[in-house]
């Protein structure tokens, strides 16, 4: 065993570690880090949501099984690599998909199956609450789920004693504390930045709205208590220790940081919690999180307002479609290549094809595409049809074809971001991007820099993910200096020696994207017509 391994083994034995576990949409991941914020071991559990009785859900058995399996995998990796059994940990934190609805009675019984963020059954409630609060309440927010249940006169409502998110539930299960981090809380109910708590006037408005229902509770009594990053939100109970570690080796008393949502842990993992910074997550969907200096002047349905884990307001722009159509086209090119008797590695295929975009006309040669595999809220479409369009005068070549598909991947996001940057004059010093697109150097960064008109960075840690992010928050709770802000902790300790590659927007690229986005907006009528006339069988429609 080398010196580093010996030091790590001693750190594990002394509990100079932090554990983060995040419940993602397809995977539960556990990450154990040392006090240098490097990963010691990890474990995971694959799972999928289910559509049951009209609601997307995960059942409690899978939640507990996934929790125990991810922890057990991590624990076994420690035993294999270091020959030591984990008995204590310096700090623990849980994170999960934000929003959704978990309602419990006084005995702790779950009253209805967990309703996840994916459900779109709350349209009426979200619209009414947005009008009531004059604050955008998206369909996936917990308060929208609660109010829709009220509108539907569901039978479980008089029995409610507590509602929370998935992260809040796991935290409660292991600590006995009905706690929630402010970032996760901001996806349950609007937050007042000045108080660091739920917006009191809106809570009062809600109670007045439902006053004639005569429920035996008021809203503030059934919501979890809000904590900010750095505060301790409970400790591992004896029961919690037995649930988490089936081998019964883990001892109780370990401090817990506030449970957080996946948006907040993503911000931490990309060092994007300081005002005037942000991050863009690129995958099947794409979203940007921008930390605001001031409130927006009005309500925008395209923009969600949430917070960082330390309570700063964040504008979130989320587009449902991003990389799926690019992947589909590259799959077609792979088929052609293989039909010619050739073989190609995925990284090579993506690298060659994406780099062609750097040889293209700045605006993509007059070509147009929409990678809409599903509907898109920002552009007002309930369904999508992937579409490629050109005129006889378009400059149709491979370079322009690829540049157009990269441009359109960020088209809807660009429209939402323009509301912030052009409509609200939101200042952004830089954005950190993460996702598979950026495995190919330079290209994705240049495209996003042109779309956002701000410097775009990609850091080596961007692939670490939310489980690492919540482990960092757990570490911050026990390792912060007196009065040290989360921003300073991340800058001066966690990311001090992390390499990043920053690309500034090119003026020609900016002008080219502006030309393209005008074409994109005008062409939305074509996409809408395709949705109306290219009718899919019901079983093939995507949510």
From TrEMBL:
GO molecular function, one term: kinase activity
Keywords associated with the record: Kinase, Transferase
SUPFAM superfamilies, per database record: Actin-like ATPase domain
InterPro entries: ATPase_NBD (IPR043129), FGGY_C (IPR018485), FGGY_Carb_Kinase (IPR050406), FGGY_N (IPR018484)
Domain of life where this protein originates: Bacteria
Gene3D superfamilies: 3.30.420.40
A Gene Ontology BP annotation from the UniProt entry: carbohydrate metabolic process
Record-annotated Carbohydrate kinase FGGY N-terminal domain positions: 19-241
Domain Carbohydrate kinase FGGY C-terminal: 279-477
One Pfam family here: FGGY_C
Keyword check for Kinase: yes
Family statement: Belongs to the FGGY kinase family.
PANTHER family: SUGAR KINASE, XYLULOSE KINASE
Record protein name field: ATPase
Organism: Oceanobacillus zhaokaii
């Amino acid at each position: 065993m080398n010196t580093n391994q010996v030091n790590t083994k001693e750190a594990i034995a002394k509990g100079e570690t932090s554990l983060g576990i995040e419940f993602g949409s397809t995977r539960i991941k556990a990450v154990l880090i040392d006090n240098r914020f490097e990963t010691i071991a990890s474990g995971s559990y694959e799972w999928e949501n289910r559509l049951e009785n009209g609601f997307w859900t995960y059942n409690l058995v899978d939640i507990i099984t996934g929790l125990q399996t991810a922890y057990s995998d991590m624990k076994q990796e420690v035993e294999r690599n270091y020959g030591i059994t984990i008995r204590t940990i310096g700090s623990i934190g849980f994170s999960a998909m934000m929003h959704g609805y978990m309602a419990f009675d006084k005995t702790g019984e779950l009253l209805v199956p967990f309703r996840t963020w994916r459900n779109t059954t709350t349209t009426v409630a979200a619209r009414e609450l947005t009008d009531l609060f004059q604050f955008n309440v998206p369909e996936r927010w917990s308060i929208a789920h609660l109010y829709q249940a009220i509108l539907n006169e569901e039978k479980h409502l008089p029995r409610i004693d507590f509602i929370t998110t998935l992260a809040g539930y796991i935290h409660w299960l292991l600590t006995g504390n009905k706690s929630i981090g402010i970032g996760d809380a901001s996806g349950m109910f609007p937050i007042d930045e000045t108080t660091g708590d739920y917006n009191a006037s809106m809570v009062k408005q809600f109670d007045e709205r439902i006053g004639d229902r005569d429920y035996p509770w008021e809203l503030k009594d059934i919501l979890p208590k809000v904590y900010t990053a750095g505060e301790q939100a409970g400790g591992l109970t004896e029961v919690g220790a037995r649930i988490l570690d089936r081998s019964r080796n883990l001892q109780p008393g370990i401090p817990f940081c506030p449970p957080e949502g996946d948006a907040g842990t993503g911000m931490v993992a990309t060092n994007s919690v300081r005002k005037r910074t942000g991050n863009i997550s690129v995958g099947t969907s794409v979203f940007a999180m921008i930390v605001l200096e001031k409130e927006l002047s009005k309500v925008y349905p395209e923009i969600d307002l949430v917070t960082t884990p330390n309570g700063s307001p964040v504008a979130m722009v989320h587009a449902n479609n991003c990389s799926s159509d690019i992947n589909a086209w590259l799959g077609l090119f792979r088929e052609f290549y293989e039909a010619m008797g050739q073989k190609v590695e995925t990284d090579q295929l993506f690298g060659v094809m994406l780099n062609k975009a750097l040889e293209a006309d700045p605006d993509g040669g007059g070509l147009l595409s929409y990678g809409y595999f599903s509907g898109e809220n920002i552009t007002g479409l309930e369904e999508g049809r992937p579409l490629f369009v050109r005129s006889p005068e378009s400059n149709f070549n491979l370079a322009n074809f690829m540049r157009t598909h990269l441009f359109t991947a960020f088209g809807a996001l660009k429209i939402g971001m323009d509301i912030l940057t052009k409509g609200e004059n939101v200042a952004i010093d830089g954005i950190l991007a993460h996702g598979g697109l950026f495995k190919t150097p330079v290209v994705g960064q240049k495209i996003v820099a042109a779309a956002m008109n701000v410097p775009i960075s990609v850091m080596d840690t961007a692939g670490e993910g939310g489980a690492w992010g919540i482990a960092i928050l757990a570490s911050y709770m026990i390792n912060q200096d007196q009065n040290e802000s989360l921003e300073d902790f991340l800058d001066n300790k966690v990311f001090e020696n992390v390499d990043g590659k920053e690309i500034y927007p090119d003026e020609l690229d900016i002008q080219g994207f502006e030309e393209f986005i005008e074409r994109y907006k005008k062409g939305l009528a074509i996409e809408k017509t395709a949705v109306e006339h290219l009718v899919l069988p019901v079983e093939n429609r995507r949510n």
